Fold this sequence. Notes:
With 401 residues, this protein is an alpha+beta fold.
Amino acid sequence: MQPSYVTSKEAVRRFLLETQYLLPEEDQEISVIQMIRNLECVQLDPVASVERNQHLVLMARVPDYQPDMLHQLLAKGDLFEYWANAACTIPVQDYPVFKAVRSRLRKLVQPELEKLSPIVRHILDRLKDEGELPSRAFRSDERVHGGWDTAQPKTKITSRALNLLLDAGIIRVVRREGSERYFHLTEESLPQWLLNQADKIEVEEAERALLAKYIRAYRVIDARDPRFGWQKLKAMERKQAMETMVASGEAIRLTIEGIKTTYYILAEDLDRLKRHERTPDPFSIEHDDVRFLPPLDNLLWRRDRLVDLFDFTYRWEIYIPKEKRQYGYYAMPILIGDQLVGRMDPGLDRSSNQLHIRQLKLEPTIKVTKELHGNIWQGLERFAAAHCAKGITLNKNMCDI
Length: 401
C-alpha cells in the first residue's frame, strides 16, 4: 500500500477554499463561464427565499454577478443542465462524459415513459415541428404521481412526461426566462460534433472521465461519500476506485492531523496543498470579506467534511417542521477568511424590495467585537445590493449583531 501524505487540517482547509474559489485574495477578473468550468458544475434549485442557489453560488465568487449572465450562457449553448451532484448546470463540452448516467437513467424511466406514451409522443412531435417551447405550451388537467407526491397524485401529466424525458436525455432545457424552462430535442439543439463525441465514447471511458470530473469538483474527497463519482457505486467499489488511483499515482491518500477520516486529493494538486503548509498568513474575521453561502453551495456538498475541516455542523432546515428549526428556513453559512463563523437566514420581500434578515447566529466561539459587527454589516449591504434591495431589516431578537 502506498504511504499516506501527512498534513494539517488548516492546510487542507485552505487548499479546499482555494480550489473552491473562496479564499480572501485579491479580486481576480474571471468570467462566469470560466468560474463554472473551474467548479465543474453548479447545483440548480428552485427555492427562492432570496436569489436561487445557482445564482448565490456565483454571487459569492464572481464580482458584480447578475442572474442574466447565467441565463445568457445557457441560451448561447455554453451550458447544459443534467444530473451531476444533483440537478446542475454544466459546461456543454462535458456532455459526452455523462453517457453512462444518461444510459442508467433512461433504463430507469423507460417503463414510465411507455405508460405515458401518448403524451410523450405529443411532446416530441411538437418539439420536432415547432422547435423550442416553454413549459406552459404543454397543458393538461390530468394528474399523476410525480417525484415529490405522496398519497395523492398532484403532478400534471405533461410536467411528469417532460421531467422523465429530461432524465432520459431525450430533451433538454435550452433556456430559461425567470423560473420558466424552454425545452428542445437534444439531437436538434446540440452541435453535431458533440453528439458524435457522445456516441463514440466508450462507457468505461466516460465513467473514468466522470470520476475525474467529480474529484476536480470536490478536490478533497472521501470514499464514504454516497455521491462518489456521481455514479451508483457500492462502498467497496468506491474505496477500490480510490486505492486504484493511488496505486497508479493519479491520487494521493491524506492523513490529516487530528482527523480519523481518510481523504484523497489528485496528485497534481499536491504542490498547491504544500503551499498552504508554509506558515500561512493569518486571516481576520474582523477585516476579511464576508461571504454568504447558499445551502447547496459546492463547498457544502459533503457535510461530514465541514465537521472535519471547519468544526462546523450544517444541515438545511427547509424540510424540518418550522417549530423544530434551529437556524431558519434558508440558513446560509457565513464564511470569513478560512472560518465558517455562523449562519444567516435571509428573505427578500420582492414587493417592497427589502432584504429581511430573519435570523443571524454566530458560533459560540466567536466574540462579537465592534469591528466584526461592522464587517458583517458591510457584507449584508453588499448582499442586499447584489439583490437590488433598497434596504435591510433585522429581526433584532434573533440576530447576534
